[in-house]
C-alpha cells in the first residue's frame, strides 16, 4: 500500500519551503494543500491536525500529523532513508548539523522580520544583527559547496527558504547582503540550481509584494 502524504502550508512560508524541498529531494509523492488564509480562516483539517499550535505547517503521513518543519525534515529523512540522506551518520557531525539548524531557527526569522516591520534604531539594530548572523553562517560554510560538505543536506534545507526573502529584507531595510556575505549568496545561487529548490522557492518579487500586503494588514508604514 502506497504512503499517503499531505502537506498543508502557505506559499510564502520559508518553513513550508523546507519540508517541500525535503520531500522533493527524497522523491516522495505528496499532495500539497495551500492554506489560503492562515490568519483569519484556518481550515478544519488544519485545526484538527495541529490542535496545539493551530497553525501551519502540518505534514500528514498516513493520517498521522507531524508538526514543526525541522522535526518534519528529520522525520522525512528517517522514514525515506534509502535516498539522499540529510543528516550525517557520524554522531558528532550530526550534532553539529542539528546545532546550526537550531541556530537558524532561533535567530533568523525574527531578525529578518524586523528589517521590514520596524523603523529607526530598531531597524538599524535588526540590520546589524542580521548581517552578523549571516556572517556567522558564512564562516561555518567556509569553502565548502554546502554546509554538509559536497552534498546538499539538512542545514542547507533549513536555511535555503530564507533565500527568497533576502531581496525583501534588503529593499525594506536599505542594505546589501551581497556586499557583506558574498559567499552566502553564492551558496544560495548554487542551491537554486537544484530542481528541488528551484521549483519550490517563490519569485523574490512575489515575496516582496506579499510583504507589502503584510505591512498594510499590520498597519506598518
UniProtKB/TrEMBL annotation:
Q: What catalytic activity is recorded? A: RX + glutathione = an S-substituted glutathione + a halide anion + H(+)
EC number(s) in its UniProt entry?
A: 2.5.1.18
Keyword match 4Fe-4S: no
User: What PROSITE patterns does the record tag this protein with?
Assistant: GST_CTER, GST_NTER
Pfam families in alphabetical order: GST_C, GST_N
Q: Which positions fall inside the GST N-terminal domain?
A: 3-84
User: What name appears for this protein in its UniProt entry?
Assistant: glutathione transferase
The source organism is Camelina sativa
Amino acid at each position: 500500500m502506497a504512503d499517503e502524504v499531505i502537506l498543508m502550508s502557505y506559499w510564502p512560508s520559508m518553513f513550508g519551503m523546507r519540508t517541500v524541498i525535503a520531500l522533493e529531494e527524497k522523491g516522495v509523492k505528496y499532495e500539497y494543500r495551500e492554506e489560503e488564509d492562515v490568519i483569519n480562516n484556518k481550515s478544519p483539517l488544519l485545526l484538527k491536525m495541529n490542535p496545539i499550535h493551530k497553525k501551519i505547517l502540518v505534514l500528514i503521513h498516513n493520517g498521522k500529523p507531524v508538526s514543526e518543519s525541522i522535526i518534519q525534515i528529520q522525520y522525512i529523512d528517517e522514514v525515506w532513508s534509502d535516498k539522499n540522506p540529510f543528516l550525517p551518520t557520524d554522531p558528532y557531525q550530526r550534532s553539529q548539523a542539528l546545532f546550526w539548524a537550531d541556530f537558524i531557527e532561533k535567530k533568523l526569522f525574527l531578525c529578518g522580520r524586523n528589517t521590514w516591520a520596524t523603523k529607526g534604531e530598531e531597524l538599524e539594530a535588526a540590520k546589524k544583527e542580521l548581517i552578523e548572523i549571516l556572517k556567522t553562517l558564512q564562516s561555518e560554510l567556509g569553502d565548502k559547496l554546502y554546509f554538509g560538505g559536497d552534498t546538499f543536506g539538512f542545514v542547507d534545507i533549513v536555511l535555503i527558504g530564507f533565500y527568497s526573502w533576502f531581496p525583501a529584507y534588503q529593499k525594506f531595510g536599505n542594505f546589501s547582503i551581497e556586499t557583506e556575505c558574498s559567499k552566502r549568496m553564492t551558496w544560495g545561487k548554487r542551491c537554486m540550481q537544484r530542481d528541488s529548490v528551484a521549483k519550490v522557492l517563490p519569485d523574490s518579487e512575489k515575496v516582496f509584494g506579499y510583504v507589502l500586503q503584510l505591512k498594510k494588514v499590520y498597519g506598518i508604514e
